[in-house]
Amino acid sequence: MGLRLHVARKYEIEYSSSFGFNYKVVEFHNLLTALGISYNGESWDDDVEVNRENFRQGLDKLKTYDKLDAGEKTEIDEALSELDEPVEEIIEIMERLLTESDQKNEYMLLSFF
Length: 113
Prior knowledge:
By secondary structure, this protein is mainly α.
């Protein structure tokens, strides 16, 4: 037995329609961070992977914003102001991301292009 490196022979990605946040890559990453959603890569990366359950928890935090402490609210408010979208719209977009992503995969690939 060994532990050798392999490469996927077939890796097929099919993207859904666009969701918004035009030219708001860093701002979207800031929102993820404010909501406690970990992602791989840097804040300027166009492609990131996020854990589905972690994303769901962050979305729930945004939905229950009124129950958060002042410090969390301040950080989220700053991130939301950068996106220049109504909170309801952001929640709707994040719900669509969850729904339209590959449900068989534990991670969601989010890509700006």
